[in-house]
Amino acid sequence: MTRPASAILVAGLCVLTGCGGFVGQPDADVADTVTPAPVPTVPTDTPQPSSDGGIDADSVAADHWRALDGRSHTARTSVRWRYPNGSTYDDTTVHRVGPDRERFHAVADYGRPRGAINRTGHELWYDGERSFYRVDSRDAGPVFRQIETEVAIQYPGASLIRGLFARLRPVDVRQTALGSTVVTGPVSGVYGLQGLSQFRDERNVTMAAHITPDGYVGRIAIGFDAIVRDRPVEAQLTIAFTDVGSTRVTEPAWVENVSGQSGTSTPVVGRPLGT
């Protein structure tokens, strides 16, 4: 089940340049537009390969979050894998985050039902003070509750971005005419990274990433072969940070039905799904 590395990189670059969409995205409205926040004035240096063929992953991750600081944005993650019989699963998350991260809305769709009630997805709404959680299931329908404990945003974070770039070598760095940077190359593996522990024995792992002139990582596309539940799969991970400075974070209508339905545990949300 081998594929040429060049084919993966071409597919990744297609995603990066906008000629292909993410698979399995939820049908929720993306965002209303608002006046964009000013572009950060902190200059960022173009990442360059080191002597060992790698890249400074710590600097890439730090520049990413510095560029997003104080700016609303939408983070989309898709983990897709396909078995030899053609069965395909897509786990997706979409996070809409306010400029000060005081409000956020997470929507997740699962590639296959999970747990005793066959959960098919979840949502989390945080308004800066209260957290509301919704679980959709095949057997029990929607289940709502208010969460008493404070939650943290756990969407594709610095650890995942840093981990991916740290495993990327030998790296190829190309500057575009518009001032952005395209970084490509093979990755040593994805096991152990945030939300990707279901994959084993990864092979032919290739990555293409687009870093904007502002310094944040706009898109990442990774393709690889792996084993999931003792069966071979072809897998793809795609991450995008979009609508920077123009994402509107609005309370979902279902929150009105949740008041008083308390829970005691904080769900783990926002990770690239599949575990």
TrEMBL record:
Residue numbers spanned by region Disordered: 33-56
Superkingdom classification of source: Archaea
Low complexity biased stretches: 33-47
Stated name of the protein: Uncharacterized protein
Organism listed in the record: Halomicrobium zhouii
